[in-house]
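User: Predict SseB family protein's structure from this.
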Amino acid sequence: MTEQPTAQESQPLNDLETQLAKAGLPEANPVDVILSFLNNEVYILSADSLDAPDAAVEPLILANADDEPVLAVFSHPSRVEAQFLEAAPNVLGTRGAAILDSIGDQLGLVINPGSQHGFEMGPEGIAKVRRDFKRADEADAESAMDAAADGPQE
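Assistant:
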């Protein structure tokens, strides 16, 4: 017997999940999912807490179907399953862009492993996102610099 998702599991809880839910539709735009991931808070799990001044994050790394390492990332704390919390009990929130800035070149990521509101991105996909997308604060700063360079408008 296959377990059916609970009502809460099937309902998007934030903008990222709304975009993930739309991802399978014909009119879906994958750019919307990427932008939502980059500009919203997401959650990683760590074996260590960040209470101490010299604390370091040791994020939960899983293996995908091809046995390649992927960083486990969650769109909402309620999406974290108990089995993951046993391995890494500390839930830490950060922007998706910060995760992509800090992830290595050999590591992929999986959003909401085992959930219907999720996806996986390999190292080559992460490299493309880093190349093709700017964070909202970077884009705003670039627009302001471009406007200043153009001079006053008459």
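The helical segments are 7-10, 15-22, 30-39, 82-87, 96-102, 123-132, 136-150.
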